[in-house]
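Box S2. Input/output pair 1.
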Amino acid sequence: MADSPAATPSAALPDTGFLRQPQVLSFVPISKSTLWRRVHARTFPEPVKLSERVTVWRAEDIRRWIEQQGVAS
C-alpha cells in the first residue's frame, strides 16, 4: 500500500495535467504568499478555476515557467 500514488507524492513534474497549490509549491520553492504575489504581478502562470473552491495550474505552464527561470539566471 505504501507504493500507491496517494501514499507517495510524485517526485517528477508531470508533462500534462493539473496541479493544486501544494503540488506547485513542492516544485517551486517559494511561499504561498509569494506565489500569489507573483500571480497578481503576472510573473507566474495564471491558475485555472475549476470550481468555486478548486484552483489549479496547468503542469505545462509550470514546467515552462521553471525552464524560463533557468535561462534567466
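Box S3. Input/output pair 2.
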Amino acid sequence: MSETPVKQQSTAAYFGQAVASFAVALVATSIGIFQLEADTWVRAFLGIAVLYLVTSSFTLAKVIRDKQEAGQIVSRVDQARLEKLLAEHDPLAKL
C-alpha cells in the first residue's frame, strides 16, 4: 500500500569528482594568493577570506541538507498518518 521513496545516493565517481574539484580550486586559489605581488598583510587577508568562504559554504550546504531532510521526515509522518486513517476507515460500518 505504501511506497517508500528510494534514497538516491551519488556514485563514487561523482563524489571523487566533487572532492577533486574542490581540492583543485583551493590549491589554485592558494597558489594565486601566494604568488600575488602584494604586501604580506594583503595576502594574509585574502587567505583568511578564502578560508571563511570555504567554511561558510560547508555550513550553508549542511543547513540546506538538514532543512530538506526535515521536510522529508515531516512528509513521511504525514503519509503514515494518512495511511493509518485509511486503513482504519470502514465505509460500510455506518450502514
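Caption for Box S3: The two ends are 26 Å apart (CA to CA). The chain has one domain: 12-88.
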